[in-house]
Amino acid sequence: MDKLSIAGPTRLAGTIRASGAKNAALPILAATLLAEEPVVLHNLPRVRDIRTMDRLLCHLGASSELRDDGALVVRGSADGNPDDAPYELVKTMRASALVLGPLLARRGHARVSLPGGCAIGVRPIDQHLAGLEALGATIELEHGYVTASARALHGARFRFAMPTVGGTENLMMAASLARGTTVLENCAREPEIVDLARLLNAMGARLAGAGEETIVIEGVERLGGCEHTVIADRIEVGTYLIGAAITGGDVTVEQCNPADLAPLLAKLSEIGASVEVAAADATTGRGGRIRVAAGGGLRASDVSTAPHPGFPTDLQAQYLALMTQAEGVAAVCETVFENRFQHVPELLRMGADVRCEGPCAYVHGPTPLSGSHVMATDLRASACLVLAALVAEGETVVDRIYHLDRGYENMELKLQKLGAHVRRIHS
Ligand code: UD1
């Protein structure tokens, strides 16, 4: 298993380009199963989760081809192929459940392994299933698999019990080919949902309201091909901007959308970093720029995660690392997932002063951190440890970085470009 060795302390400085958003690309890849013609996708990040979804699509009978210009051309397939997502693929990536809606809508049948829990919590998919039932599907749970079938899906009104990103996406995809109108209420409003809606509408769907609480979908008979460019990865961008703040550095990220990062940027300003933005194109959400600079003397500030437009849970671990270097006590509270503080014991080993109580972690700072051997437990926890390593004195070895490889494109190259002393140890 590969490791990262990071020699600190470092000051990050320079300019990098945002990668495409993994969490937008995954549902977009699943949605290609709905199309009767090829879909051309630009700006897909080269990360493990995307390769896993590509393998899953091919297992389901689709084919894909990487063009010389980096675009991936995906051809869905209506039938004649297996329509099940096996445990071996689903267990490595929960987002595999996103093929449920498209398979059911296009083929009338889907069999997907239940994802089970993961390091950050239980994460059921009951809302995905209840929504598909509302559209007329019959759902059976057997031998760890969900089997969904429907002769024809029909439009319906469905209210999510909580805003779920994957649930909203699954229902948007299924309802696009259902007969009649679907009204989805209490939807998740993440930018990745808006990007999926852009793709579906470009394929011929009639979907309005993505990014708001209520989404209305007029079902259509067929969906065609299109060309689409995936939005920037706001979590990746946020991670490097926190990197600028924690190291007292000066980092500019290009080709991103500052509006998608509003809660983080507000926090960074509040704690004493300087934040400059150039807005993205209003239609595509692309082409913006953010610069964050800090010169030490950061002040602690509390954060509570919440569904978009709140502070993203996927930046909680990175923000917690930042608070170890800020003056005062910060309460970092997690409201989206029930078990998302596994980075804390590793930070304690590096010298941080953090006390967990229920859904909150109280971070006392600033504390000097010292390089240690630490273990990554999930994707964002790994990013938190890398950030801590950048300010720690001496060498930190982050073990199990296959978690990082799931979601960060070329992390060590980007960090090197910003002046960090990082190297990958292959083992
Ligand atoms: C997506 C993101 C993930 C992010 C999360 C929250 C992708 C591939 N992953 O995950 O990085 O951390 O959004 O922003 O986009 N829930 C239920 N029942 C359901 C569905 C969800 O109880 O049927 C709960 C979950 O356990 C969790 C909360 O709702 O506590 C939010 O989960 P959800 O928004 O669905 O997260 P994902 O789509 O899995």
What brief labels describe this structure?
binds uridine-diphosphate-N-acetylglucosamine; single chain; 4-stranded mixed β-sheet; 14 helices; 427 residues; 24 strands; alpha/beta
Describe the structure.
This protein is about 30% helix and about 25% strand. The chain is of the alpha/beta class. The model has no long low-confidence stretch (mean pLDDT about 95). Uridine-diphosphate-N-acetylglucosamine (UD1) binds near residues 26, 95 and 128.
| Beta content | 25-35%
List all distinct small molecules, including ions and cofactors, that are bound in this structure: uridine-diphosphate-N-acetylglucosamine
Report how far the terminal alpha carbons are from each other.
5 Å
How much helix is in the residues? Answer: 25-40%
Number of helices: 14
Mean pLDDT figure: 94
Return Rg in Å: 21 Å
Q: State the shape.
A: globular
Largest sheet: 4 strands, mixed
Query: Largest beta sheet: what is the strand line-up?
Result: 22-23-1-24
Going by helix content, strand content and strand pairing, the class is alpha/beta
- Low-confidence stretches are none
Number of strands: 24
List the helices and strands and how they pair.
Layout: E1 3-8, E2 13-17, H1 22-31, E3 39-42, H2 48-59, E4 63-66, E5 72-75, E6 84-85, H3 87-90, H4 100-107, E7 109-113, H5 126-134, E8 138-142, E9 145-149, E10 157-159, H6 165-176, E11 181-185, H7 191-202, E12 206-208, E13 215-218, E14 226-229, H8 234-246, E15 250-256, H9 262-270, E16 274-278, E17 288-293, E18 303-304, H10 316-323, E19 328-333, H11 343-349, E20 353-357, E21 360-365, E22 373-375, H12 379-391, E23 394-399, H13 402-407, H14 411-417, E24 421-425
Helix pairs in contact: 1-2, 1-7, 4-6, 5-6, 6-7, 8-10, 8-12, 10-12
